[in-house]
Write a structure and sequence with these properties.
Layout lengths: L2 H13 L2 H8 L3 H15 L4 E3 L4 E3 L1 H29 L2 E7 L3 H17 L2 E7 L4 H9 L5 E6 L7 E8 L1 E6 L9 E2 L8 E4 L7 H12 L5 E5 L3 H9 L5 E4 H4 L7 E6 L6 E7 L6 H14 L1
Parallel strand pairs: 3-4, 3-5, 8-12, 9-10
Antiparallel strand pairs: 1-2, 5-13, 6-13, 7-11, 7-12
Helix pairs in contact: 1-2, 1-3, 1-4, 2-3, 5-10
Length: about 300
């Protein structure tokens, strides 16, 4: 039993007429009859009752119909997937990003890719920051990354797609909450909530550098794995959190106020990054879509 035989069987089962089925398959009727007979021999069961006036499915034929459709459909899907992957219209693209700050861009890109290339599987890898995201790209563990840097990272290709500004999340009952803007000197001795140093977040590096320039080393009271947890800890009065405006724009801020930084801060640039020598054809389509969508 092979797929050619099953396709022939389904044509006859649908038309209940060998002549019409042969025309649909673009084969001679004797050839179709031999194909069906070979399938019946392989299954050791008659599939059709044939008379000079009619063709009907036997019980064995009825039992085969759904199975044949499933097998033929699977073959069609497999062929379509292979053709799409070869042309770059299908396949997998793994996109890493940090968290809430990237949700707007990620959502827009996912929708555009789904509309244009429904066979491309866009896989999301959240919780990747700065140098961690670049390291994953270089190790081949991701195909595309949205990450924040003050300068373009080495070893990968990319382009800037947005610019963000730094802000500080402050407990609502903290004395600094009464100020409209803050300076880095205001953070001397203040407990801070931040991502772990191992995350490679550029924001933590910028904060430490600016505090050192102000003449002190910041105090990190608590590490937290994501922006949701950082803001929740700020709300609980654990400390302050140096972050970006886009990171807190989509978070609940009960008991938290956001304050601007008066001191100069290097621009936080959002980069779309990828490996320069990547041969993933689906990635090229995602990059083209991103270029149109993100500018």
């Amino acid at each position: 039993m092979d797929l050619r035989q099953l396709r022939a069987f389904l044509a006859v089962a649908e038309d209940l007429h060998f002549g019409r089925a042969a025309d649909r398959l673009h084969v001679a009727q004797p050839h179709l009859s031999r194909t069906i007979r070979a399938l019946e021999d392989a299954l050791a069961a008659p599939l059709f009752d044939r008379t000079t006036r009619r063709v009907e499915l036997t019980p064995a034929g009825h039992a085969l119909v759904e199975h044949a459709r499933t097998m033929v459909s699977a073959d069609d899907r497999a062929r379509a997937a292979v053709a799409a992957a070869h042309a770059g219209r299908g396949g997998r693209v793994r996109l890493s990003f940090a968290g809430p700050s990237a949700h707007g861009v990620v959502g827009r890109l996912a929708r555009a890719v789904r509309e244009r290339y429904p066979l491309i599987d866009l896989e999301f890898l959240p919780g990747r920051y700065g140098t961690t995201a670049v390291a994953e790209l270089l190790r081949g563990e991701a195909d595309l990354a949205l990450a924040r840097f003050t300068e373009s990272p080495a070893g990968v290709r990319g382009r800037v797609v947005a610019q963000d500004r730094c802000v500080v999340a402050v407990p609502g009952d903290h004395p600094l909450a009464a100020r409209e803007t803050l300076t880095f000197a205001d953070f001397r001795g203040e407990p801070m909530v931040a991502f772990p140093e191992s995350y490679g977040s550029v924001l933590r590096d910028v904060f430490v550098d600016r505090c050192h320039a102000a003449g002190f080393t910041p105090t990190f009271a608590q590490a937290a794995p994501d922006s949701w947890t950082c803001v929740a800890l700020v709300s609980a009065g654990v400390g302050l959190h140096f972050t970006t405006a886009s990171s807190v724009a989509r978070l609940p801020l009960d008991g938290v106020v956001i304050r601007e930084i008066a001191d100069p801060v290097p621009p936080i640039l959002v980069h779309l990054l990828w490996r320069g020598a990547d041969e993933n054809r689906a990635l090229r389509h995602v990059l083209d879509t991103a270029a149109e969508l993100l500018g």
